[in-house]
Amino acid sequence: MKKLIEKIIQTKNPTVVGLDPTLDYIPQYLKQKYFEEYGYTLKGAAKAYYAFNKKIINAICDIVPAVKPQCAYYEALGWQGMKTLAKTIQYARSKGMYVITDGKRNDIGSTMQAYATAHLGQISVDGVQTPAFGADALTVNGYLGTDGISPLLSVMNEDQGIFVLVKTSNPSSGELQDQKIGENSVYAVMGDMCEKWGEGSIDPYGYSQVGAVVGATYPQQLGELRRRLPHTFFLVPGYGAQGGGAKDVAGAFDENGLGGIVNSSRAILTAWKKEGSDGVDFAETARREALRMKEDIISVIAPIKG
């Protein structure tokens, strides 16, 4: 996680903006521009998504270390949406941002190898190596065990990472994740596996390339896992629209203000609606909400230092 941590230290901001657009989030003036040119088509929608994303990225790239596009929102637009995902990743990285692709991929063997190559690696095209999507990190589902993680570890370079689902933020996560294996919960066992998978890649900040997804909606478990998993960096969803607050995420962080990055998507992308705007200034309102979130989080954690 060295590259991500250095961006967090640089910006003094342990947050990530989820780029999860829907047409409802995009102001009418921007949508209409592309619908007039391409019609009410998937291509028109995809063009609007990309224009929206670019403006958000331009507004936050100097104050927020990372973005997290969720694949599902782009897959919903077919191949045009997937092209927009690839372009969004490339654009964010060109602006110096760390990109976490939220795909929650889960498979084994050659299939997982293909997912790893697509999102983190390079594919050989008749001997020429080229990246497909080229993100810095990928969210993955580790509940198939080591067979689903090893292909990723073999593909990642030293600047890349993965975030494994451990204790997710959704209401029914406890149906499985809170069950016991002996004296330990399922999520604790999965967390221990993250520590094991990452033990060969500890960076100077004390964290490995194998991170964990731990939700802000379960602050007690978040604090428990921080103590249990000293080398595992946390991606923390559930802040804001899902109900988590700054005090709920505080347990993710260590004594140096590091150890976690907190996600917000809807609250930032639709800040223009909350402010009662017509959306012309949506990027500026997103920036203001991102700064408000930053101040909220850093008010409850130790000062960020490297």
Mean pLDDT: 95
Secondary-structure-derived class: alpha/beta
Distance between the termini: 13 Å
Main sheet makeup: 8 strands, parallel, barrel
Q: What is the second-level CATH architecture?
A: Alpha-Beta Barrel
What is the oligomer described by this structure?
single chain
CATH homologous superfamily designation: Aldolase class I
Parts with pLDDT < 50 across at least 5 consecutive residues? none
Percent of residues in β-strands: 15-25%
Principal-axis shape equals globular
Physical arrangement of strands within the biggest beta sheet:
1-2-3-6-7-10-11-12
> What's the total helix number?
14
- Quick one: how many beta strands? 12
Protein name: Orotidine 5'-phosphate decarboxylase
Active site: 104
InterPro entries: Aldolase_TIM (IPR013785), OMPdecase_AS (IPR018089), OMPdecase_type-2 (IPR011995), OMPdeCOase_dom (IPR001754), RibuloseP-bd_barrel (IPR011060)
GO molecular function, one term: orotidine-5'-phosphate decarboxylase activity
